[in-house]
Write a structure and sequence with these properties.
Growth Hormone, Chain: A, 412 residues
């Protein structure tokens, strides 16, 4: 496909109704989210089979996060120049290859390699899916559409550890990747047969130098940086919890991996309710008020979790109960900040979405690897980290003020 806008022009007449695209976009985007989280409960089993260190096992998460971040940064500008459809299909193909490598891994090094390839491929659907929403939906509907999309993805994201825990418990950690391989084949077929090209004919792709200038402009834009900070905190808090709480559950709480997956359903419920609230309340309340409510709820719930951990209330309900509330707050935050960031450069929506995701993943990967030195014989270290970053996010949102309000831009 050429770098011109003709493919988008040809696709204009055959573009599917925007409502019909949402289920497909949810499936494409969920591939990346599920890939990371379905594996997390299987980490202890993989570590035991290969007799690997906690640091080496952590690389299956942190390096995958870095690869995912690099993919987000590359796929966005690529889709702005070459079109959404071919980039998504290429990413899904790469994801399938990486999943097969991980499923057949004979060493921790091979598992890390498979995870990196897998994450690199899955990044395409996440970042380009957001750009497709920006292509298809009217500007005033972007935030609500992203909320619907995020609601489905967040639930799949949160349910994934439950599925991973059960697959690992019933079969082995390799069953997690076997299930992903089947899912990858189904999503690839659905995408190849149903996804139209949505790049608008008037969205002229910038030259290479223009992409660099766009990224530089976004990094100098206070509104984009405010959105990126909230995105980083939401994902860093979630990923640290999801990465290390299985170890805390088994070592300190005496729970099984399957038990962890069952309790994780509370987080799925929280995300679902938060995103559902956005779809119902945005028109009446406004996204900026929902965002402020979200960061406040997130902070208060994290402080409650830390207090319970410090007081030695280590029952799983005391760990996951506050996270139900915290996840609800995060469900209020994400659609608003994502819509605001992507709308800053409508003609380069892929680049904006990719950069937002890149910063999110890098920040979360640094957080996960930094926490590898902590003790997991107690939920206090993980809870303390999450409370710290959530409080910082609340302070940043208060100081940012109008910067986080959703204001679609008219130009590039």
């Amino acid at each position: 496909m050429s770098g011109t806008a003709e493919p988008g022009a040809r696709a204009q007449d055959r573009r599917a109704p925007s409502g019909a695209l949402l289920p497909l976009l949810a499936a494409i985007t969920a591939v990346g989210a599920i890939t990371l989280n379905i594996y997390l409960p299987a980490r202890p089993a993989a570590q035991a089979e290969f007799n690997a260190s906690a640091f080496a096992t952590g690389l299956t998460v942190s390096l995958a996060g870095v690869a995912f971040a690099i993919g987000l940064l590359c796929y966005g500008p690529w889709s702005d120049r070459r079109g959404r459809r071919p980039v998504i299909l290429a990413g899904l193909g790469l994801f399938t290859v990486g999943t097969a490598v991980a499923a057949g891994a004979t060493s921790m090094t091979m598992l890390i390699a498979g995870r990196v390839i897998q994450a690199l491929g899955s990044a395409a659907g996440v970042t380009v899916g957001r750009a497709v929403v920006s292509d298809v939906f009217p500007r005033e509907e972007i935030a609500r559409s992203l909320a619907y999309l995020t609601m489905v993805v967040a639930v799949a994201n949160a349910l994934a550890p439950s599925a991973g825990g059960l697959l690992t418990h019933w079969y082995s950690w390799r069953a997690v990747f076997a299930a992903l391989l089947v899912a990858a084949a189904g999503v690839f077929y659905w995408t190849a047969s149903s996804l139209p090209e949505t790049l608008r004919p008037l969205s002229r792709p910038p030259p290479s130098g223009g992409i660099t200038r766009t990224i530089t402009a976004l990094l100098c834009e206070p509104t984009f940086l405010a959105c990126a900070l909230q995105n980083i905190v939401v994902y860093a808090a979630f990923l640290v919890f999801a990465s290390y709480m299985p170890f805390v559950m088994t070592r300190a709480l005496g729970a099984s991996v399957a038990g962890y997956g069952a309790w994780y359903l509370l987080i799925a419920l929280g995300y679902f309710l938060g995103n559902f609230a956005v779809t119902r309340l945005t028109t009446h309340v406004g996204s900026s008020r929902l965002l402020r409510a979200g960061v406040t709820i997130q902070m208060l719930a994290s402080l409650l979790a830390l207090a319970l951990a410090a007081l030695h209330y280590w029952h799983p309900l005391a760990v996951f109960g506050p996270w139900l509330v915290l996840a609800f707050g995060q469900g209020l935050i994400l659609p608003s900040v994502t819509a605001t960031a992507v709308a800053l450069r409508p003609a380069a929506a892929g680049t904006a979405a990719g950069l937002l995701g890149f910063l999110q993943q890098i920040g979360a990967a640094v957080a996960v690897q930094s926490m590898a030195i902590a003790s997991f014989t107690s939920p206090v270290p993980v809870s303390a980290f999450i409370a710290l970053v959530c409080t910082a996010a609340w302070l940043a949102a208060i100081m940012s003020g109008p910067l986080l309000e959703y204001r679609p831009a008219a130009g590039t």
